[in-house]
């Protein structure tokens, strides 16, 4: 799935770990990702969390899409930071799953908390 994901790759993301109901992805904060306050634009942080969510909810090889999500920004990301999003399945029942994603910087500081709701569709990932 990562090989077919030019959006995540284009933002410099790497898929660092994956297991059933779990994914961890990283992304360096580049200068072109900064907003007018010289902090990482929230859209890039959201994209990292959303990508980790996507890989976690597809990790059981059932084609799954996002049905909804929310994010809370707690601390700014800065140029040169390495952000890591860790996605953990909280619930999977029928076709619906709930996933919590924590985005931290290289010092372990929590940057954002994201919760995603997934919906399984027909087909397999591989």
UniProtKB/TrEMBL annotation:
MF annotations from Gene Ontology: acyl-CoA hydrolase activity
Gene3D superfamilies, sorted: Hotdog Thioesterase (3.10.129.10)
Residue ranges annotated for the Thioesterase domain, each copy included: 37-111
Family stated for the protein in its record: Belongs to the thioesterase PaaI family.
Top-level division of the source organism's lineage: Bacteria
Protein's recorded name: Hydroxyphenylacetyl-CoA thioesterase PaaI
UniProt key word Hydrolase: yes
Keywords: Hydrolase
Keyword presence, Hydrolase: yes
Annotated source species: Duganella guangzhouensis
Pfam families, A to Z: 4HBT
């Amino acid at each position: 799935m990562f090989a077919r994901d030019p959006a995540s790759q284009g933002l410099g993301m790497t898929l660092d770990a994956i297991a059933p109901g779990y994914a961890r992805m990283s992304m360096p904060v580049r200068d072109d990702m900064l907003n007018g306050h010289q902090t990482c634009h929230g859209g890039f942080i959201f994209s990292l969390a959303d990508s980790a969510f996507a890989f976690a909810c597809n990790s059981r090889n059932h084609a799954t899409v996002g049905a909804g999500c929310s994010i809370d920004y707690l601390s700014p990301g800065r140029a040169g930071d390495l952000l890591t999003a860790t996605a953990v399945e909280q619930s999977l029942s029928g076709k619906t799953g709930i996933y919590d994603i924590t985005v931290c910087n290289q010092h372990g500081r929590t940057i954002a908390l994201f919760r995603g709701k997934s919906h399984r569709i027909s087909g397999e990932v591989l």
